[in-house]
Automatic annotation (TrEMBL):
Residues 678-767 form the Disease resistance R13L4/SHOC-2-like LRR domain. Residues 14-85 form the RPW8 domain. This is Putative powdery mildew resistance protein, RPW8. One of its GO terms (molecular function) is ADP binding.
Length: 814
């Protein structure tokens, strides 16, 4: 087909654009840059058309003109695809400017009309009782209720897996129960069931995996289900409202079969299980618990492993990543395995702990395990068994302490590695770069006392100060072990004090003997009628978990010696207790809200009196205006609303945070412009702004941060330009702009950054390189293939590395 015939057959919307292309086809040279420009001609319109189409799916019936518009767009794309092979041209910026400007304006107007119609429909839904927002992406997506990673290895579960699968694949509504002692492999079995091909074939994307934990909160579970399924998360007025919305959500996605896994359900949560029962076809619930719930039928009981399977599991775990020579004679192995009594958790932890250790230690473990009853008779006896492992830890003074610190965080929640590094650097004197802390974390991981999860692997993580993508997850029984170790001392003498203040545990300040003596009813009377005496604790670390059901009275509490303070919140608002003002030794403050919507903090001004406070980490918090913290070195904001944080007042931010060295801002999507006032903090050496998708530009004043050494801007997808003043950052050694998809060019003077050693540019193919990059001699560039070609053309002598693409989807679970 000739160009003229192509032009005649092309729909009117794209005729002008195609004319422009034809004019330059035969007059220039073939380049990658030109191909990218031509590809983007229609691609720029594609998101808008898709959005209109999504709106259109929610309006009955669809308008024919929109269908025609989409067909024209597809026809234009096909026509352009045919002519790619004929394109021999040099760059012509007019293509971009002439890509159907009037037609795009018409599309915007059509989109506005569609938005208005959708809003009207939403109002009608509210009036009809359908008070939740509909998504437009066509189906459930990955999210916080996704199935965990498929276990690398498991043994002895095949028979039970087959039985569960047959029951799940049956037609009809049912609730299945799976029970077993702690550490018996219930979660592993449930996970493998969800990854089974036949199960996935039936339920598809409607497999929802919810961890209940010991004190579940209905509203938070429903929030996560909404987020997981791709719907806007509502704010619930009450538990009844949350249940009502949950019913709408399940019926919405229930056009296909649903499998809901409720993992780690505790006995007190049986009434809550009832809230998840809805009369729907092909809706199944699998409940895993340490106890059976007779009301929901006869459960499947997961028994201890047979000896042969236990030995196989032991061998696999013991020389995982090593050789069989790590293990002594088989007789000792058989004895240790028998001592574990078929508990998969005990087998895996003990095998890893004994690997590479001398025979005497194995013999000591055999003697310890041979005393007393089976380790699976109760959770307490399994804890006693696992406790013996801590006796074989190297450098107990640090590693054992770090293990017990994991108990400061809530069960079944991912623990940010960056938070642990902050704690351990300040309290144990580890290196500021976090490498010693990571070595301890890897040691705990190698012993199966904790598992390291890398949510999304960035090449720059190993070279920079930032571990934002690293987390620790821990079996709840190992967390109980850490807490048990921490509670062996009397309350007032403990190194760690873990306070859980909620509707189930309000009398936290009573020790176990007092609770047993006064009884449940008298404890209620005591709680409301008698104030406790002044309670002074000498704990080095204080962890407080609270929800909205509990009102706090801290008037008689004092923790002046604490160096670490952790708040685990499930509240919309929280007011710092007055005792915080007197925590003169406090070095690290970590505040995490585990709800979906950011929590409002009050009484933040109390922190201004804490002269030793060095590090603050806030997660899902609406950050108030920062107070004067003259010795603060590190500030980390994760998924926060921070539009008030750096507001100007009578005291400049450089005077409020004069010694700030490190600032990390991650997933803070209310930040459109970077606060100019931060550029006045002259001591700032490390600045990380990642996953802030609305950030479109950096201020020119960024060049004033003369001591900056690390600058990370990765995954700021709307960032279009970097100011030329970046070139004046003469001390910068690392720059990360990976996944800055909209970045059009590097500053002209970037080649003047003679100390720059590492530049990360993966997925930055659109970013043009200035001529000054020829000045680099010792620079290492980590990038994709297309970006590498641009660098090789200008400076072929550089060290250019193309990392392997990471397809891990764990980053979607934040």
């Amino acid at each position: 087909m000739s160009d003229t015939k192509q032009l005649v057959s092309l729909p009117p919307l794209f005729q002008e654009t195609f004319k422009k292309i034809i004019e330059i086809v035969d007059n220039a040279h073939k380049t990658k840059t030109t191909r990218r420009i031509l590809r983007s001609t229609l691609r720029d319109l594609n998101p808008l058309l898709q959005e209109i189409n999504k709106y259109n799916e929610n309006l009955d019936p669809p308008r024919e003109e929109i269908k025609t518009l989409i067909k024209e767009k597809d026809a234009g794309r096909e026509c352009l695809r045919r002519c790619w092979s004929r394109i021999w041209c040099k760059k012509d910026d007019s293509i971009i400017d002439s890509g159907g400007g009037d037609d795009k304006h018409a599309l915007v107007m059509a989109n506005d009309v569609k938005q208005t119609l959708i809003k009207v429909r939403e109002i009608l839904q509210v009036l009809n009782g359908e008070n939740f927002d509909e998504k437009f992406n066509g189906g459930p997506t990955k999210g916080p209720c996704s199935v965990p990673e498929n276990p690398d290895f498991s043994f002895g579960l095949e028979e039970m897996l087959w039985k569960l699968k047959m029951e799940v694949l049956k037609d009809g509504v049912s609730i299945l129960g799976l029970t077993g002692l702690a550490g018996s492999g219930k979660t592993t079995l449930a996970t493998k069931l969800c990854w089974d091909k036949q199960v996935k074939g039936k339920f598809g994307g409607n497999i929802l995996f919810v961890t209940f934990s010991k004190n579940p909160k209905l509203e938070i579970i429903v929030e996560r289900l909404f987020e997981h399924c791709g719907y806007r998360v509502p704010e619930f007025q009450s538990k009844e409202d949350a249940i009502h919305r949950l019913g709408f959500l399940l019926r919405k996605i229930g056009k296909s079969p649903i499998l809901l896994v409720l993992d780690d359900v505790w006995p007190d949560s049986e009434p809550l299980l009832e809230k998840f029962k809805f009369q729907m076809p092909d809706y199944k619930i699998l409940v895993t618990s340490r106890v059976a719930f007779p009301k929901f039928g006869t459960p499947f009981i997961l028994k201890p492993l047979h000896h042969e399977d236990a030995v196989t599991l032991f061998h696999h775990a013991a020389h995982f990543g090593g050789s069989k020579s790590n293990i002594p004679d088989e007789d000792l192995v058989q004895k240790v395995v028998r001592g574990c009594k078929g508990s998969p958790l005990a087998i895996k932890v003990i095998s890893r702990s004994l690997s590479h250790r001398h025979n005497k230690l194995w013999q000591n473990m055999v003697e310890e395990l041979s005393q007393g009853h089976s380790v699976v008779d109760s959770s307490n006896e399994l804890l006693t068994c696992l406790q013996k492992i801590l006796d074989v830890l190297e450098d107990k003074s640090v590693i054992k302490e770090c293990f017990m610190d994991l108990g400061l965080f809530p069960e079944d929640q991912r623990i940010p590695v960056s938070a642990l590094i902050d704690m351990w650097i300040e309290c144990y004197g580890l290196d500021d770069d976090g490498r010693e802390a990571m070595a301890i974390i890897n040691k705990l991981d190698s012993m199966n006392l904790a598992n390291v999860l890398v949510a999304r692997k960035n090449a720059s993580d190993t070279d920079s100060f930032c571990y934002n993508n690293h987390y620790i997850i821990q079996h709840d029984l190992l967390r109980e072990l850490a807490i048990y170790q921490s509670t062996q001392e009397p309350l007032k003498q403990r190194k760690r004090l873990i306070i859980d203040k909620n509707e189930h545990k309000r009398e936290w300040w009573l020790d176990e003997k007092q609770k047993g003596m006064i009884g449940h009813m008298f404890s209620k009377f005591l709680r409301f009628c008698v104030k406790p005496k002044q309670l002074k604790v000498s704990a080095r670390a204080l962890s407080i978990s609270t929800d909205e059901t509990c009102t706090s009275d801290w008037s008689n509490f004092e923790a002046a010696e604490a160096e670490i303070l952790i708040f685990n919140l499930q509240t919309k608002e929280y007011c710092f207790p007055d005792f915080v003002e007197k925590m003169s030794e406090l070095k690290v403050l970590i505040v995490t809200n585990y709800g979906f919507h950011p929590s409002e903090l009050d009484n933040f001004k109390l922190l201004s009196s804490l002269s030793n406070l060095k590090r603050i980490r806030l997660e899902r918090i609406s950050v108030p205006s920062l107070v004067t913290l003259k010795n603060l070195k590190t500030l980390s904001l994760y998924m926060c609303n921070m539009n008030q944080a750096f507001e100007s007042d009578t005291i400049p931010i450089s005077n409020r945070l004069p010694n700030l060295v490190e600032l990390s801002i991650d997933y803070c999507n209310d930040m459109v412009e970077f606060p100019i006032s931060v550029c006045d903090i002259t001591l700032l050496r490390k600045l990380s702004i990642t996953n802030c998708h609305k950030l479109c530009a950096l201020p020119t004043e960024i060049g004033n941060v003369e001591n900056l050494e690390f600058l990370r801007l990765s995954s700021c997808t709307d960032l279009e330009v970097m100011p030329d003043s970046i070139g004046s950052l003469s001390k910068l050694t690392l720059l990360d702009i990976s996944n800055c998809l909209s970045l059009s060019r590097l500053p002209e003077d970037v080649g003047n950054m003679y100390n720059l050693r590492n530049l990360y540019m993966t997925n930055c193919a659109r970013c043009e390189l200035p001529y000054s990059v020829i000045n680099f001699e010792n620079l290492k560039v980590i990038c994709d293939e297309e970006t590498a070609a641009s660098w090789e053309a200008l400076n072929p002598n550089l060290n250019i590395e193309i990392p392997q693409v990471d397809v891990n989807l764990n980053w979607l679970f934040h």
